[in-house]
Amino acid sequence: MVDSNQETRGVVGDILNLIGLQTGMQFETIVVKSNEEMVSEMKKNNWHIVQAATYDLSRENALSFTHPFITTQFVTVVRKENTQETTLRAGMNVAIGADHAFTGKA
To answer: Which GO terms describe its molecular function (predicted)?
Structure first.
């Protein structure tokens, strides 16, 4: 995530800041609007590191993935007034961002 000054924040921002303090390396944050734009920029060698990317077999041909240094669980978000069980079952509708790796479009 980036702040209003386009500075990387959050866990990855903290890690990159620590690396910078220990090595003198400086990192430039570049923001894109989609996974397709991210892959396009990587293929042109305009970037060297992506701070957060979901592994997808189709991306493996163009990008090299390290072992994850942090993993997070996916969560279910429901309406606050929903008092029913929130277990995902066959036939339920699930919203996924257009460029998420699970859509197969990225």
So the answer is: protein histidine kinase activity
Neighbours of 27 (CB within 10 A): 16
How distant is the alpha carbon of residue 57 from its chain centre?
15
Question: What is the distance between the alpha carbons of residues 13 and 18, in angstroms, rounded to a whole number?
Answer: 9
State the Cα torsion 58-61-63-67 to the nearest 10°: 80
Residue type for position 19 = I
- Rounded to an integer, the average pLDDT of 45-64 is 76
Separation of CA 22 from chain center: 25
The residue with tokens 């929903």 is 82
pTM for the structure as a whole? 0.52
- What percent helix, strand, coil does the chain show, rounded to 5? 30, 0, 70
